């Protein structure tokens, strides 16, 4: 009879130990936003495309992944993002205002003179990015800064 009670006490202690250690492990788990669907490179990330998943804190490179959902929404994927996989910090960027090959309005301002022409963007860019643009009339390549409205502004006429 004592042997049976001893077995029950040991079993109960083992169950309690497992519960306590599981609770401690849950407290250390890390919740990261992950894609709920496949997100292609260049696609704008919406809130319904993101879900959360729990990862162990000792997963290799867990500190290099985006931790907040608000960081992702409204940004653009730089590469394909797979469902359920954590998102590296360097795999999203600000959305482009100008796409490569798009016809853009180029504004050149110098010494109070303003000239407007059109060109073909040779590179995509977000506002504030310096991109090369080929003038469609002359073929000359100029560099300008992308503006929030999608125009490219050349400051010193270069």
Global shape: rod-shaped
Strand arrangement, largest sheet? 5-6-7-8-9
Helix count from the secondary structure assignment: 2
Supply the helix-strand structural class.
alpha+beta
The total beta strand count reads: 9
Mean pLDDT: 84
Helix content: 10-25%
Uncertain segments:
none
Quote the distance from N terminus to C terminus: 96 Å
Give the C-alpha Rg.
Answer: 27 Å
Strand content is: 25-35%
Question: Order of helices and strands, N to C?
Answer: HEEHEEEEEEE
Sheet bearing the most strands, described?
A: 5 strands, mixed, barrel
Notable traits:
about 160 residues, alpha+beta, two-stranded antiparallel sheet, 2 helices, about 20% helix, rod-shaped
Quick structural gist:
This protein is of the alpha+beta class and 158 residues long. It is built from 2 helices and 9 strands. The strands form 3 sheets. Strands 5-6-7-8-9 form a 5-stranded mixed beta barrel. The protein has a two-stranded antiparallel sheet with strand order 1-2.
